[in-house]
Amino acid sequence: MDSEPKESVSDCGRNELPPEANSLAAASVFAPNRWVKLNVGGQIYATTIDTLVGREPDSMLARMFLQDGSMMPSERDEKGAFLIDRSPRYFEPIINYLRHGQFVCDSNISVLGVLEEARFFGIYSLVTHLEERLGQQEAPMGDRPLTRNDVIKAIIQTSVITELRFQGVNLSGADLRKLDFRNINFKEGANLRGCNFEDPTGVRTNLEGVNLKGACLESSNMAGVNLRVANLKNANMKNCNLRAAVLAGADLEKCNLSGSDLQEANLRGANLKDAELALMVTPLHMSQAIR
Questions:
Q1: What's the per-residue H, E or C state across the chain?
Q2: Is 6's pLDDT higher than 50?
């Protein structure tokens, strides 16, 4: 008597498994040399796990196929390709960049469109390259606002014993964490409103001795920043996060600190003459040694 035939599960039929089993099965077989297919907005791309993971291991694409379980792969189409709901027009330059490390783009494809897709997928080395490229195309250095990359380059190329000047610079909303701003002279009128100086890894942004006289730093995240002996006279620092910041010896005369959080901040020897301290998030203790 013949036994009943056993059902087999082909590669294309894996979606018939329960979702949990399908995800675990997928995660367990993603070897670096394995080929996979991606369905990006209806366009099929064949590539290897090594291509998706090797160059940008922290990107969204890499995390989809790493075995650490940080992000499960997407659903598959009827032919087994992983579905990604993005524009194939801008994805092709990205997958080619992951393959060989060079950005190649046809003249009829918007570089700005590729940049937005690179940001979405977390391909940050490509993001930096495209931001620099677009910045150079938009205007000469003397006629355009400074970008984060411009600031970094200027800092790297300037010795710590030289005064670097950014008179009236507008860096509002910039991500300035981990940078070393020692001896930089922003002169008066610099706009750093809403900037982020805090790094989650604990690396302090170094603003020791910086001249931010009259600068606008309102609503900036400056937790843990080193502002020792900085000139912040007449600066607008309303609603700033200055938790655990080092302000020892800083000149804060007539500085507006209303609404700011100075919990655990070091103000030893700081000059707070006529500083505005209304609506402080945490009370200022005499142990913080104001003079």
A1: CCCCCCCCCCHHHHHHCCHHHHHHHHHHCCCCCCEEEEEECCEEEEEEHHHHHHCCCCCHHHHHHCCCCCCCCCCECCCCCEEECCCHHHHHHHHHHHHHCCCCCCCCCCHHHHHHHHHHHCCHHHHHHHHHHHHHHHCCHHHCCCCHHHHHHHHHCCCCCCCEECCCCECCCCECCCCECCCEECCCCCECCCCECCCCCCCCCECCCCECCCCECCCCECCCCECCCCECCCCECCCCECCCCECCCCECCCCECCCCECCCCECCCEECCCCECCCCCCCCCHHHCEC
A2: no
